[in-house]
C-alpha cells in the first residue's frame, strides 16, 4: 500500500489512480470517514481522464493512529507532504466537512501555487465553537456529547 511519511513520522495512506500526466484531483474526506468514501467520485473522474488521489487523514483509515497532531495545522502539514511528494501541480482540491477545513488550512498555510481550484462541500468553519467572539457557533455541550458518544459506544454513536 502506498504511504507518505509525515514530518513527525506518521504514515499517511493514499490512493493514486489514473494517468500521472493528467490533471490531478485530490479528495479530502470528512470525519470519521476515510479515502474509501470517495471511491465513486474517483472512478467517475478517473474515467473522465483525470488523475485522482485520496488519502486517509492521520488517525483515520489505514494511516497511523496518532495520539497527538489531530488538528488542522497538522492535517494541512500532512497534506503538504503528500502534495509535495507526489509533485502535484494544477491541482483541484476537493474537501468535505473536516476535509474542507483541511483544504482551506493547506491553502492558507502553503499557498495556492500548486492548486488551480478548491471545491468545499459542507466544509467546517475555522471556528465551530460558540464563544463571545463567535456567538453563532456550536455550544460546547454538542462537542461534549460527541466525545461521550464515541467514548462510550462508538458503533452506536455512528
Strand content: 15-25%
Instruction: Kindly name the structural category.
Output: alpha/beta
CATH topology grouping of the largest domain: Rossmann fold
The CATH superfamily of the largest domain turns out to be: Alpha/Beta hydrolase fold, catalytic domain
Write a concise synopsis of the structure shown.
By secondary structure, this protein is of the alpha/beta class.
Could you explain how this protein is built, in words?
The chain has two domains: 3-126, Rossmann fold (3-Layer(aba) Sandwich); 127-158, no CATH class. The chain is of the alpha/beta class and 158 residues long. Helix 2 (72-85) crosses helix 3. 34% of the residues lie in helices and 21% in strands. The two termini are 27 Å apart.
List the helices and strands and how they pair.
Elements: E1 3-5, E2 11-17, E3 24-28, H1 39-47, E4 51-55, H2 72-85, E5 91-96, H3 98-110, E6 115-121, H4 140-152, H5 154-157
Parallel strand pairs: 3-4, 3-5, 5-6
Antiparallel strand pairs: 1-2, 2-4
Helix pairs in contact: 2-3
What are the main properties of this structure?
globular; Rossmann fold; 158 residues; alpha/beta; six-stranded mixed sheet; 6 strands; single chain
Amino acid at each position: 500500500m502506498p504511504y507518505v511519511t509525515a514530518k513527525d513520522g506518521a504514515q499517511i495512506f493514499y490512493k493514486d489512480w489514473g494517468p500521472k500526466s493528467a490533471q490531478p484531483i485530490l479528495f479530502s474526506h470528512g470525519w470519521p470517514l476515510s479515502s474509501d468514501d470517495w471511491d465513486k467520485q474517483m472512478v467517475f473522474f478517473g474515467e473522465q481522464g483525470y488523475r485522482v488521489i485520496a488519502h486517509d487523514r492521520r488517525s483515520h483509515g489505514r494511516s497511523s493512529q496518532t495520539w497527538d497532531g489531530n488538528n488542522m495545522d497538522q492535517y494541512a502539514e500532512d497534506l503538504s507532504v503528500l502534495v509535495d511528494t507526489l509533485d502535484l501541480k494544477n491541482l483541484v482540491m476537493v474537501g468535505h466537512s473536516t476535509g474542507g477545513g483541511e483544504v482551506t488550512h493547506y491553502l492558507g498555510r502553503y499557498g495556492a501555487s500548486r492548486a488551480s481550484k478548491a471545491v468545499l462541500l459542507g466544509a467546517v468553519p475555522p471556528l465551530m465553537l460558540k464563544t463571545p467572539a463567535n456567538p453563532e457557533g456550536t455550544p460546547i455541550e454538542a462537542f461534549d456529547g460527541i466525545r461521550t458518544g464515541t467514548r462510550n459506544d462508538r458503533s452506536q454513536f455512528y
